[in-house]
Amino acid sequence: MKRFACAGLLLFPLLALAVKGERFPAEARTVTDEPAYSVLQLTTHAADDAGLYFTNEAFSPADNLLVFTSKRNGSWNLYGIDLTSHAIIQLTDSRRISGTGAVVAPGSREVFYKEGSQIKALSLVTLAERVLTDLPRGFIISAAVTASPDGKVVALSQVEDIPITTKTDVIYSDMDERFEKRPFSQIFTGNGNGTDWHMVAGQQKWISHVLLGPQTPYPLLYCHEGRWNRVEQRMWLISRDDTGKRKLREEETPELSIGHEYFFPDGVRVGYHGNYAAPDKRSFIGVADIRDGSYREYVTPAGNMHTHANAQGTLFVGDGSPRAPFINVYALHEGKLEGGPLFRHDGSWAKQEWHPHPRFLPDGKQVVFTSNRGGDGNVYLLKLK
Question: Alpha carbon of 50 to those of 17, 54, 276, 376, 383: distances in Å?
Answer without folding.
Answer: 21, 11, 31, 10, 18
